[in-house]
Design a protein that fits this description.
Elements: H1 8-18, E1 33-38, E2 41-46, H2 57-71, E3 78-83, H3 115-134, E4 139-143, E5 146-149, H4 151-157, E6 161-165, E7 169-172, H5 187-193, H6 195-203, E8 207-209, H7 210-215, E9 221-223, H8 227-246, H9 250-256
Parallel strand pairs: 2-3, 3-4, 4-6, 5-7, 6-9
Antiparallel strand pairs: 1-2, 7-8
Helix pairs in contact: 2-3, 4-5, 5-6
């Protein structure tokens, strides 16, 4: 049986060796992603409303750095992900208003490198990020919001428990409309949804609301009420959920995770065929 995350310990080790972190929680210098650790809970806030929290170079690098630290700190039990603005993540930074400093965080290329080489280097960083995020030893909780696209959906799929406001939450699978038949960012969505469901959503360029996302197991809890109120309540309940999870035993947290080693859909089954709910 072929499954994702086989030999994950070795793969993670190799990624950590080739992707040195620029800073840690103690020396955090990014202004577009907030990251802190207190006791056994880490908090991450995507704070780049100017680009809709798009995965530009600086954001990918910041998320990579925090994932590198968390892989090395298994004593941290839970990670909470929230976002500022109206979008959790608008995915790849296509046409976004990219700040000038973003180029400083782009992959370093050899002189004369082609556009293809640049694309490979950029996508490799995203692939490393999604692999490290999906295989984090911590239980991951997220409060999402707004229109989430492409790689942003993979960030959501890499979580173990997701809260979403009932209004202004939409997951848009628009890869086909951009000419993409596959993407390195699909690691987390395929692991959560299976190949068959992922293929259907992408080929149809489907828009999925909060209730449909819950049926797909991409969302666990829907927050009712006016949008502005629901955004704040989702963030607060995400932190409360993290505090609850932190009180569980290590065995309980592992049993209720739905991401990482031993939790992915078998690739041979093409996914989407089982109606059995995962234990959250």
């Amino acid at each position: 049986m072929v499954v994702q995350w086989q030999n994950s310990e070795q793969v993670v080790k190799e990624i950590l060796q080739c992707s040195p972190a620029r800073c840690s929680s103690g020396t955090w210098s990014y202004d577009n992603v907030k990251f802190s650790i207190e006791d056994d809970i880490a908090q991450v806030k995507l704070d780049d409303a100017r680009t809709g929290n798009a995965l530009r170079h600086k954001t990918v690098r910041a998320l990579l750095d925090l994932c590198i630290e968390l892989h090395r700190r298994p004593e941290v039990k839970v990670v909470v992900f929230t976002a500022s603005g109206f979008y959790f993540s608008s995915g790849g930074a296509f046409g976004a208003d990219i700040p000038e400093d973003d180029i400083n965080f782009a992959p370093k290329l050899k002189p004369g490198a082609s556009q293809f080489d640049a694309g490979v280097a950029e996508n490799l960083l995203v692939a490393h990020l999604l692999y490290l995020l999906s295989t984090l030893p911590q239980y991951k909780v997220a409060a999402i919001r707004g229109s989430i696209l492409g790689a942003g959906i993979s960030l959501v799929a890499a979580m173990d428990y997701v809260l979403a406001p009932e209004s202004r939450t939409q997951l848009s699978f628009k890869e086909a409309t951009r000419g993409l038949g596959a993407c390195c960012s699909w690691q987390a969505t395929i692991a959560k949804l299976g190949v068959r469901t992922m293929r259907r959503l992408c080929l149809l360029a489907a828009d999925v609301n909060a209730f449909q996302a819950k049926e797909l197991k991409l969302v666990d809890e829907i927050i009712a009420g006016p949008t502005s109120q629901a955004f704040g309540e989702a963030d607060a309940r995400a932190l409360a959920k993290a505090q609850q999870v932190a009180s569980w035993t290590t065995e309980e947290r592992h049993a209720r995770k739905c991401t990482g080693p031993g939790k992915a859909q078998p690739l041979e089954l093409c996914g989407g065929g089982s109606s059995k709910r995962r234990n959250r």
